[in-house]
Write a structure and sequence with these properties.
Elements: E1 11-16, H1 21-36, E2 42-47, H2 60-77, H3 96-108, H4 113-125, H5 134-141, H6 148-155, H7 158-173, E3 181-186, E4 189-195, H8 200-213
Parallel strand pairs: 1-2
Antiparallel strand pairs: 1-3, 3-4
Helix pairs in contact: 1-2, 1-4, 3-4, 3-5, 5-6
């Protein structure tokens, strides 16, 4: 690990979605980056509006494209998928409830956000859990010390629904139109590190170049 002087409080903004296949493959990269840079780097998880508020079921063509994407993720990252997902009929790929659940976690247990995101990815892609269902989401967060009553109260509040919409708008405003995306934020401003999946070494090298330019 190169030991370089870094700007005060550098932050990685990880733009993700609990129901994004490439994010599923990329979250382990972010977790390793956080571990390698512990004490020198803050990681903040933001939710991107992938298919948020969708109302129409997946078409056969959309299913085919999604299946190809999942296979590519699995080939590159070796994360497991359960392809029985594609036998579901009438599935509306609405990711807003899962994003809102993760927002609740970030407010209630901010240090556990990445761990819960990892659990949500695994639940959806490998275990076929329905992350559109609030009861499933409440069950997922319970092992992380969040009571069902507290979670549901926050999850169903008008304030959190509005905050989720504002976060989606913010993510779009900074140009994060592909998930996963990563920005580096310092006192000198914000820089794009990756749009889409990249491996740990490449992500770290891009971050180091940005940090070296800012000291």
């Amino acid at each position: 690990m190169p030991m370089i002087k870094t700007p005060d409080n550098p932050t990685l903004l990880y733009i993700t979605n609990p129901m994004c296949g490439w994010c599923y493959g990329f979250t382990p990269v972010i977790r390793r980056m956080r571990a390698l840079w512990q004490g020198r780097l803050t990681v903040k998880v933001l939710m991107g509006p992938l298919q948020a508020y969708a109302t129409e079921p997946l078409t056969p063509d959309a299913k085919d494209k999604l299946a190809v994407s999942w296979h590519r993720v699995q080939d590159r990252t070796s994360v497991p998928f359960d392809y029985r997902f594609f036998t579901r009929r009438g599935f509306v790929y609405n990711t807003e409830p899962a994003c809102r659940a993760l927002l609740c976690v970030r407010l209630l247990r901010p240090k556990l956000t990445l761990e819960v995101l990892r659990a949500m990815h695994s639940a959806f892609f490998a275990d076929l859990k329905d992350l559109r269902n609030p009861a499933v989401l409440a069950e997922l967060v319970r092992p992380f010390g969040i009571s069902e009553n507290l979670f549901m109260t926050l999850f169903e509040s008008e304030e959190i629904i509005q905050q989720m919409e504002e976060e989606f708008n913010y993510v779009e405003s900074i140009g994060a139109d592909n998930f996963p995306s990563v920005f580096l934020q310092t006192t000198h401003g914000m820089a794009y590190l990756t749009k889409g999946y990249t491996d740990l070494n490449e992500l770290e090298q891009r971050m180091l170049r940005e940090l070296e330019m800012k000291v």
